[in-house]
UniProtKB/TrEMBL annotation:
Domain of life: Eukaryota
Protein name: Non-homologous end-joining factor 1
Gene Ontology molecular-function annotations: DNA end binding
Keyword DNA damage in annotation: yes
Amino acid sequence: MWVSTNETFNNTPMLFQFSQKNNFCIFNFTNMKQLYSKEIHESLFSSIYSSTNKIEVDVKNVIEYLKNIGEMKNVNYNFYQDELSIKADLIITLSEGFPPFKLELELELKDENIFYSKLTCPLLKIIKQLKQNQEDLFDVIKKKDLEISEYKLVGGNISNENIKTEIFEKDNFFMNSLQNHTDLVEEIPYLYEIYSSLIEQYNIIRHPDVNKESNSISTKEENQKIQTKNIINNSIDHKIIKSSTTMEITNTSINVKKRKKSSLLKSL
């Protein structure tokens, strides 16, 4: 997990993440614009120990501590620019009464692809999941409203005034949400549109083949609908023509005869 360092570098707040992969320990730092990293094999972990450390600590204990750093408060960070790189110090107080223990890291600036894979992509995945959770919740609320309406139709009554609710309107919900976050809306006028379109673009980038297949299926379905519509229209036209012809035939086959007046009417 990412944790705040409560420190800044070049006037921007820095976040820290520690992870392990294939016996490598990975230190990641970011200001949400760039990613700085240090990867080191467990067998060489002691090489990042500061020469000024006054206590010896087993590597496994330090790694275990870093894995749970989100719950730890006794860590200080220091960032500074060296001639060719950025350096970071982690100053850890493992236990009260003992001197602090320091790790010295020489960080590497990662390229934009790694930044995307480590930060942008996970954030988009989270937003996508939250959006899906929101839609699922909307469906549940809609069903609950229908359930309450049916309950009232059969004579049911909600006696507790404190739990009575209005019918849920999704559009009103979004409008109220934006009004409650006027600071964000003022900074980003089209906040919800950005929120929605980012997910759509992420899906296109992430699954281009699926989208192509989906578009192909949609095109086929549209073509089938058009063909079906044409067949139906042709059938209707045929029926109209057939009906019209029948009517013409019927009309031509009718012999209109004038009725003769009765003798009584003639005398009048």
